[in-house]
Amino acid sequence: MGQDFVVQIIYQGVILTLLLSLPAVGIGLLVGFIISLFQAVTQIQEQTLTFVPKVIAVMLMIAFTSPWMISLMIDFTASLWAGIPAMTR
Predict the structure, then answer these.
(1) CA-to-CA distance for 82 and 78, rounded, in angstroms?
(2) Nearby residues of 49 by Cβ (< 8 Å), 6 or more positions away
(3) How many domains, the chain?
(4) Domain housing 46
(5) Whole-angstrom Cα distance, residue 52 to residue 28?
(6) Model pTM above 0.85
(7) Of all residues in the chain, what percent carry a pLDDT higher than 70?
(8) What is the pLDDT of residues 60-89, one digit of tens each?
(9) What are φ and ψ of residue 45, in 5° steps?
(10) CA atoms of 42 and 59, how far apart (whole Å)
(11) Please, are residues 45 and 39 in contact by the beta-carbon 8 Å criterion?
């Protein structure tokens, strides 16, 4: 097991982490932008107004994308387990 192999596994893990977090972070960013635009237009400066809708939107996004996320994590884990014999050489 060389250094390139370890770097490749870490790279795949980082890419998977970014890919799995992208929908939740993206919807949080979009909802936050829409609420801040609404606050700027109406001049309502309430701090708690942004928190609750973002949490609800992120939780709904995680609920809708969880089957896809779980399948990606299972595939990655299965490929790691299948690669253990190659790692021990």
Answers:
(1) 6
(2) 35, 39
(3) 1
(4) 3-87
(5) 11
(6) no
(7) 98
(8) 999 999 999 999 999 999 999 998 887 777
(9) -115, 65
(10) 27
(11) yes
| Amino acid symbol at 10 | I
User: What's the rounded Cα separation, in Å, for the pair 82 and 12?
Assistant: 15
Written as one string, the DSSP assignment of the chain is --HHHHHHHHHHHHHHHHHHHHHHHHHHHHHHHHHHHHHHHHT---THHHHHHHHHHHHHHHHHHHHHHHHHHHHHHHHHHHTHHHH--
Give the whole-angstrom CA distance, residue 47 versus residue 45. 6
Q: Name 9's Cβ contacts closer than 8 Å, sequence gap at least 6.
A: 80
Question: If you search the block for the tokens 């884990």, which residue do you land on?
Answer: 77
Q: Residue 26 — very low, low, confident or very high, per pLDDT cuts 50/70/90?
A: very high
Which tokens belong to 27?
């919807």
Tokens standing for residue 52: 């609750």
Tokens of 65: 């994308």
